[in-house]
Write a structure and sequence with these properties.
The complex is a heterodimer of chains A (159) and B (237). Chain A is built from five helices and six strands. Chain A is an alpha/beta fold. Chain A has a six-stranded mixed beta sheet with strand order 3-2-4-1-5-6, with helices on both faces. In chain A, helix 1 packs parallel to helix 2 and helix 1 (27-42) packs across helix 5 (150-158). In chain B, helix 3 (50-71) packs antiparallel against helix 4 (77-98) and helix 7 runs antiparallel to helix 8. The chains are: A alpha/beta (159), B mainly alpha (237).
Chain lengths: 159, 237
């Protein structure tokens, strides 16, 4: 099984009166991530399950990933909090994408690879970045195959 | 601008009463509200969250279908007992769904969706209208195909909700939807009898449903002919 952890693309800045969960993508963030999706397409990546956080920037990032989805998308409040056992249980399918936020995506990566969330900040997870994992979705049951910065995936699209 | 807030509040309230008290009207309203919200997402050009609404709607729908069947006075007693048992299980599934992280995420996400403009919504209506006309033609080519009937029913409903979002009068569509809905009730009853019925009494009930379905299909063909010209112009400014 492969798991693709995706950090949301570039969102509008925090501002007074705008709740954090209501921050959507900037036009540049959306455009840039659309190129990331093209890069994933060049790599032949498809998902049979797409889980995403309910926050607007994650919903809009998930929306841009829809052309790669051949199954069902699922919003879950578990991606808007620190990763836990319930979230890990939700990872079902052969090629599953999860779209969420920092620091939790790094912590989820660390949990799946090393079995402990404390190592999450060891991974440089850029906005619009994608980590590819393979193995069994249990704590410590996966290995990291790639951690793509968005620039690398955009370059694939151009090439 | 068209915002979701009022309808979302309606969904929250009814989901609570459907999940807690198994309230039949609440279940019905959950089904309707999830469809209307899916229509709003379609007009907003969003694909995300529609699978989640469908997932929730299926759970409410399973319960609602049983409520409609049980509301009929002519159901054989043995089938009725099976459907009462099935209703308890369907209610447990809806309650579990209502308390899931998926529905919590769905409600949180819908609450922060930015409103859409009426122009943006109107721009998507011609595509929906063309889909309904296409499905109507397909249904008329083979009016005994219940799958074509089902597609037309869903298409007509999508057009109705889309028109309602932009403030159009949809009275003529309601009549078509009523006859499509009545035909679908017979299809659902037949599916349940085929799955769970086995006594001679069940088979007599089945025959009654077959006759009712044929009558309703005739009604749909007639109403489609009456309403088609209106649909061709629906939503045209």
């Amino acid at each position: 099984m492969k798991v693709y952890l995706v950090r949301h693309a570039l969102a509008v800045e925090r501002e007074v009166g705008l709740p954090d969960e209501s921050r959507g993508l900037t036009p540049e963030g959306a455009k840039s991530f659309a190129e990331v999706v093209d890069g994933l397409q060049v790599l032949g990546i498809r998902f049979d399950h797409l889980l995403h956080s309910p926050w607007l920037r994650a919903v809009e990032t998930a929306e841009l990933l829809m052309p790669l989805l051949e199954g069902e998308s699922e919003v879950t409040s578990l991606l808007a909090m620190a990763p836990n056992a319930d979230l890990v249980k939700q990872i079902k399918g052969d090629n599953v994408a999860l779209v969420g936020h920092r620091p939790w995506m790094g912590e989820l990566l660390a949990l799946l690879v090393a079995g402990r969330v404390e190592d999450g900040d060891r991974y440089e997870f850029k906005k619009g970045g994608v980590a590819v994992l393979e193995g069994k979705p249990v704590p410590g049951g996966m290995r990291l195959l790639a951690l793509y910065p968005p620039r690398a995936l955009r370059a694939l699209e151009c090439g | 601008m068209i915002a979701l807030d009022v309808l979302l509040e309606h969904l929250r309230d009814n989901l609570e009463s459907a999940a807690t008290d198994s309230d039949a009207e609440g279940v019905h309203q959950v089904r309707v509200a999830t469809r209307r919200i899916a229509s709003w997402l379609e007009l907003a050009g969003r694909r995300s969250l529609r699978d989640d609404l469908r997932w929730l709607r299926r759970r409410a729908g399973a319960l609602r279908d049983l409520d409609v069947l049980l509301a009929r006075g002519d159901t054989p007693a043995a089938l009725r007992r099976k459907w009462v048992t099935a209703r308890i299980k369907a209610h447990q599934e809806l309650s579990a769904a209502a308390r899931s992280a998926r529905v919590a995420g769905l409600l949180e996400s819908l609450a922060i969706m930015p409103p859409i403009s009426i122009q943006e919504a109107r721009a998507r209506i011609p595509t929906i209208r063309a889909m309904v006309l296409r499905r109507g033609e397909q249904f008329c080519e083979d009016a005994v195909d219940t799958e074509a009937l089902h597609r037309l029913r869903r298409g007509a409903r999508r057009l109705r909700y889309a028109l309602e979002w932009v403030g159009e009068d949809v009275k003529p569509l309601r009549r078509l939807q009523d006859v499509l809905g009545a035909a679908n009730d017979a299809v659902v009853a037949l599916a349940h009898v085929d799955q769970e019925g086995n006594s001679p009494e069940d088979m007599r009930y089945r025959e009654k449903m077959v006759v009712r379905l044929s009558e309703q299909i005739d009604e749909v063909v007639k109403e489609w002919g009456v309403h088609r010209p209106w649909i061709e112009k629906a939503g045209v400014v």
